[in-house]
Design goal:
The protein is of the alpha+beta class and 217 residues long. It has helices spanning 16-28, 41-51, 71-77, 117-139, 144-147, 165-175, 182-198; strands at residues 2-4, 7-10, 62-70, 84-87, 102-104, 156-164. The chain has 7 helices and 6 strands; from the N terminus they run E-E-H-H-E-H-E-E-H-H-E-H-H. Helix 1 (16-28) packs across helix 2. It is elongated and about 70 Å long. The two termini are 23 Å apart.
């Protein structure tokens, strides 16, 4: 049995300045004002279109993220409509070959002897039991798609998500506030912070709501 923390990976190499310049070039076609483009104009132009709600221009740029999360969080990820997804399949991935199942650690419970220890121990026992049950089914001839019936939401999965900038803005507005699931915030808050540092302007107006201690440790 393996227990890991949730995480993410930015698949694309992102050049923030180049992204802004592309958006400006696309957007200025609407106004036929391409002659106003210079080395310094893109940031102000993108700031203005976001303020005016002219976000369709942002759809000309997209990027891809690999999320390493549990199955529960993955069900929320794939609900986003204007995005493309590829996900690790429990039908075809036979964890019996590795003789262990990987689970995502719930960041709101601690395994050390203090607060929430009882909850963590209950979770751990449940995962151990599901692993034994799964491997037992596989070893007795069940297929992966049959044996997966005993696997819990804490099962580790990988989801590749590609979306345009407009949808990523919508995504972060939904998935970083306090009302979002803590394990979703565990990955979306650090990702948003990183993207704010890489790409100017695009995500600057999206607040990272506090408290978020439970999401970033």
């Amino acid at each position: 049995m393996k227990i890991i923390k949730a995480g993410y990976e930015i698949i694309d190499v992102l050049d923030g300045d180049a992204i802004l310049k592309k958006i400006e070039l696309c957007g200025r076609v609407c106004y036929k004002s391409e002659e106003k483009i210079d080395d310094e104009s893109s940031k102000k132009f993108v700031e203005d279109i976001i303020k005016r709600g002219h976000e369709s221009v942002l759809e000309h740029v997209s990027f891809t993220i690999r999320f390493i999360v549990d199955r529960g969080v993955s069900h929320e990820l794939v609900r986003h409509r204007i995005a493309s997804f590829s996900q690790e399949s429990t039908r075809y991935c036979n964890y019996g070959h590795e003789n262990e199942v990987t689970f995502i650690k719930p960041m709101f419970w601690e395994e050390i002897r203090k607060k929430n220890t009882e909850q963590y121990d209950t979770w751990l026992s449940s995962c151990k039991y599901s692993e034994v049950s799964y491997l037992g089914l596989i070893n007795n001839g069940s297929t992966a798609q049959e044996a997966r019936s005993v696997l819990p939401n804490s099962l580790k999965t990988e989801v590749i998500m590609t979306a345009n900038l407009r949808e990523w803005r919508h995504f972060f507005k939904l998935r970083t506030p306090i009302a979002a699931h803590p394990q979703m915030r565990e990955v979306t808050i650090p990702l948003l912070r990183e993207l704010q540092g890489i790409i100017p302007v695009i995500f600057d107006d999206i607040r990272i709501y506090t408290p978020y201690k439970e999401a970033v440790k």
